[in-house]
Amino acid sequence: MQQDAMGDYLNTISRIPLLTAAEEIELGHAIQEMMAIVDNDEIKEEDYTPAQRRTIRRGNKARERMVSANLRLVVACSKKWYGKRLNLEKLDLIQEGNAGLMRAAEKFDPTRGYKFSTYAFWWIRQGITRAIGYQNRMIRLPGAALPTLFKAKTFIVDYKAEHGTTPSIERIAEEVGATPESIKLYLTHYNDVGSLDRPSVLSDGDTDIINLIPDPNSMELAYIFDAEDSKIIHEMLDTLTDKQRHVIIERYGLQDGKPKTLVEIGKKTGISRERVRQTEQAALRRLHLLANQNSLGKTLA
Prior knowledge:
This protein has helices spanning about 1-15, 20-40, 50-70, 70-80, 90-105, 115-135, 145-165, 170-175, 180-190, 220, 225-240, 240-250, 260-270, 275-290, 295-300. The chain is mainly alpha-helical. It has three domains: about 1-135, Four Helix Bundle (Hemerythrin (Met), subunit A), CATH 1.20.120.1810; about 145-190; about 225-300, Winged helix-like DNA-binding domain superfamily/Winged helix DNA-binding domain (Arc Repressor Mutant, subunit A), CATH 1.10.10.
């Protein structure tokens, strides 16, 4: 549904003709004439003269034309934030950018000599980043923190790819032009808070976070495996294929105590992540059947 709405919106704005440089100047002057009247606190709306009302109507039409002709600019600017793990949808980002575009149209001075798109870009970006700061997070960060945070995360990813290690807080602060204290605060609150009903990345999206939180009253937590149980487990593992046994041992860290992700196992064994998942599921079904047939399964039941 979201994609359909996005597609309809893009099709609609793509049919709006762009402005020439001369049209931008003409519309800009009409808008400035309107804003000079509207922003004058000494004149009340009911006291507007017929000429002033005509100027305001002309200015509103000019602003509408200026904004509609630059809606594609907002879409282009908003793409920077796509895929940034935001709670805001693409159309929400575009809407906030459009609000910044309207503000830019009202503030644009055509006598300065630069293009409207150059001037509007800053206002569009400010509208989007402010919306992200106020609507996307339960823990709010300063408006200036968001661009810095995005820049810091990008640098961390690039640095790890090049050097194989995570850069220090001081190195990150130096790169983005902020203080180490600020960077430490921003990174601490980067992930914000989340819902317990959200699928967990640890379970590859198959299980909600709340189902992974152990119950302190559960009898299973008090159960301790003895030597006989370990023997049964190894016998059960021996019934698996070599590939299934390897996946289970790596997945749950049965040898080194370090559980590995599906991606890590796939890279190590040379198979796809999905194939690792299928192998794990098949192995777990086999182990479950075996557990129910012996004392271990009865104890855990």
